[in-house]
Amino acid sequence: MQTRSILAGVGGYLPERVMTNAEFAGRIETSDEWIRERTGIGQRHFASEHETCAYMGAEASRAALRAAGAGPDDVDAIIPATATPDQAFPSTALHVQAALGVTRGFGFDVSAACAGFIYALSVADAMIRTGQATGVLVIGSEVYSRILNWQDRTTCVLFGDGAGAVFLTAGAGEGSGDRGVLSTHLRAQGDLANILYVDGAVGRPDRPGHLVMHGREVFRHAVGKLAEAVELALSANGLSPADVDWLVPHQANLRIIDAVGRKLGLPKERVVVTVDRHANTSAASVPLALAEATRDGRIRRGDLVLLEALGGGLTWGSALVRM
Ligand code: ACO
Fold it and tell me: What is the pLDDT of residue 202?
């Protein structure tokens, strides 16, 4: 038997405020029809002032710990993925640590845009496998509403705010039938930085930064790269699409989700979709979708779940998990 990371609990948090496509249509030149047709998005949640990245990350973490029947004393590492932290430092991880009353271990943030949760999961899994941690909160938390250019209709309608978290514990397993993270697969291509980026940062006081995306270019890369990443995850474990109970994809665009599902030959009933209600919550989208489908009883213990995401960088990756 080998040490393996078990997904002991999953949780999510969405801001109370919901903004519909119709509300956007009253403010900028767009329509519910255009947004739905191109993206599948019908509404998104936007954070109010107190719903910061750290606040939402802590709320999602509380829910994940509750689902696991665990508490702050069981946590020895906190690894949030975010592009929209409350402060340059301390990291989101340490704000969450203090909010939860965790008194031991360590924490740090991971930056990999929309693929951030897969990256953070991969780091956490490696730390558990090597014995550096035994109870890890892996979080995706984002407030993209703070970095959107409200004059740019090609991007501002696509994103939403929220947070998701999983609590990983050290267990034992062997083969793809036992519970836990079976494998993670990360990729990046820095020479594609100019198709999806934020044009500023805290280190550039003249430019706080807005999200810029050349959507068509990103779309062009997304389907092929994501299909490649999920095929890699399956072949690394000697599995085929028929073995997959659920695909939990990054929720950027329904057309991309459908295309990856089709490439795998997975029926729509086995693909978790939240983009219609959450829009793209970047690093939060995969754990939020996982939390929703776990809470409503679709994803059950023993199910084989395939996760994938692609985002600015470009960064992308996949993970295969036995729940
Ligand atoms: N309302 C109405 N019309 C619009 C809007 C809008 N909100 N936005 C753009 N349009 C118009 C454009 O101006 C253009 O008009 P024109 O033909 O007169 O010039 C027309 O609609 C088509 O615009 P495109 O940008 O070519 O539309 P496209 O079909 O490519 O859809 C979209 C755009 C939805 C962004 C798509 O390209 C996409 O989903 N791309 C991938 C996004 C993605 O996956 N991102 C990954 C992660 S995000 C992250 O990491 C942060």
Answer: 78
Smallest CA separation from ligand 1 atom 19, residue: 154
What pLDDT is stored for residue 174 in this prediction? 92
Dihedral angle at the C-alpha atoms of 65, 251, 115, 152, nearest 10 degrees? -120
Q: Which of 13, 233, 230 is nearest to 125 (CA)?
A: 233
pLDDT-derived band of residue 208, with 50, 70 and 90 as boundaries? confident
User: Structural domains in the chain?
Assistant: 2-173 (3.40.47.10), 180-322 (3.40.47.10)
Handedness of CA 217, 236, 288, 124 (dihedral sign): negative
Confidence of residue 243 (pLDDT cuts 50, 70, 90): very high
Q: Which DSSP state fits 147?
A: T
Instruction: Give the burial string for 194-224 (b: 16+ CB within 10 Å, else e).
Output: ebbbbeeeeeeeeeebbbbbebeebbebbbe
- Look over the chain and give the mean of its residue pLDDT values, rounded to a whole number: 96
Residue 283: the pLDDT is 98
Q: Which of 19, 219, 223 maximizes ligand 1 atoms within 8 Å of its Cβ, making it the mutation to test the pocket?
A: 219
Please tell me the distance between residue 192's alpha carbon and the centre of ligand 1 in angstroms. 18
